[in-house]
Design a protein that fits this description.
Elements lengths: L9 H15 L10 E7 L2 E3 L4 E8 L10 E5 L2 E6 L6 E6 L5 E9 L8 E10 L26
InterPro entries: Big_3_5, Ig-like_fold
Keywords: Signal
Organism: Streptomyces ovatisporus
């Protein structure tokens, strides 16, 4: 019996296998652009009153996960909260001084969605001062005596 030696090109086989894997592999999910909108409810509050900040993130892929949404009052971080299954992130804030606040909601992105942001304003006014009671006695009545007789 005669033995034949078959020469193999192992390098060519490796390259062919790699090309097949790359060509037929499922591509990884690519990041998609996102948009963020923010609302303040209510948009005008008194000092110390709560305002709900609601950011809604839109993306063709799932925007949850990642670092969520960071809410800013000007340059000050208020909070970072996760994006829920309903694509929203919510934070309740109160403000100690009157003025117009610029609120930014910055979606921080994830492996599937790019970052995005939006701004809104909150008008914070001084708490109303209760009215001063009148100095003169009220002419609206006083103590009444009622007698009921039954026969």
């Amino acid at each position: 019996m005669e033995r034949r030696r078959v020469r193999t090109n192992w390098w060519g086989s490796v390259v062919t296998a790699l090309v097949a894997v790359v060509a037929f592999a499922t591509p990884a999910a690519a990041q998609e652009p996102s948009t963020t909108t923010v609302q303040a409810v209510p948009a005008s509050v008194a000092v110390g009153a709560p305002v709900e900040l609601v950011a809604t993130v839109s993306c063709p892929n799932d925007p949850s996960g990642g670092l969520g949404v960071t809410f800013f009052d000007g340059g000050e971080i208020l909070a970072t909260v996760p994006v829920g299954a309903d694509n929203t992130a919510t934070h309740t804030a109160t403000f100690d001084t009157a003025g117009t606040r610029t609120i930014t909601a910055a979606y921080n992105g994830n492996g599937e969605c790019f970052a995005s942001n939006d701004t809104t304003t909150v008008t914070v006014s001084e708490s109303p001062t209760p009215p001063t009671p009148p100095l003169a006695p009220c002419a609206c009545g006083g103590v009444y005596n009622i007698n009921i007789h039954t026969e």
